[in-house]
Amino acid sequence: MAKNGSSPAGKKREASKQPVHGMSDREVTDVEEMSMPRTPVIYEVVRRLGNEEMKRPATSLWWSGVAAGLSISFSLLAQAILLTHLPDTAWRSLLVGFGYCVGFLMVVLGNQQLFTESTITAVLPFLKDTSWRNFWRLCRLWAIVLAANLTGTLIAALFCTFTPVLTPELQNGMVEVSRHLTEMSWPQMMFAGISSGFLIATMVWMIPAAESAKFAVIALMTYMIAIGGFTHIVTGSIEAYMLVLAGDWQWWQMIVQFVVPVLIGNMIGGTALFAVIAYAQVMEEI
User: Given 1.20.1080.10, 3.20.20.370, 2.60.120.260, 3.90.1150.10, which CATH number is that of 61-282?
Assistant: First the structure.
């Protein structure tokens, strides 16, 4: 029987202990730890996340989605707080935009189910195996999570409007922040939604490699949505609900002028653009 040092496995271990290009063992370890993961590795992490999401029971998806809708409503509340406390200057909108990050940080770091995240996570398993079974699982996930998200934001909007939880100034601030939607046409809503969907998908793609910088990645991507005036189906839904409850919009206007174009835009940006491009980068390597 060969000794451990003379066996192939033993030789491999011996070789791994040798310095590389004059580097010590510790330095080699540091290089490995500091190296960015290869694109196929990031792809596989996101794909497995999507596969796990599609396997979750409907009840779990629903309540996680409702929680996400409630949590992300704090984006609008944080913006209203900043708006009511900052002077009316040309740069106020840049600071108010920071409030938009709050809800996303709560949702993503809390591992709650957000529809626009699933436009990439759930699509990657389908692109790898384009079966009817995976297509059904994808549609099931999207339908449950989107309905749950919109239910959560509706509950939040009703709570903020019909209970004394907020001061009149803050409630008016939430409506004022929301009124930018009334200035946008149908095509503007859709194309702004494409940009938003792409940024959220980018955020999801970056998180596996971000490690301790997750907070910064989430904040940066969502801040770009806010100051860019882009539209997001879930965060924007509480704004749309507030406009309906304030009398600025009718329910049909919310659906036709906001929900339809923004939903189309988010799905194009997150799925047709980012998810397909992400898969194309690695399809010859997986």
Answer: 1.20.1080.10
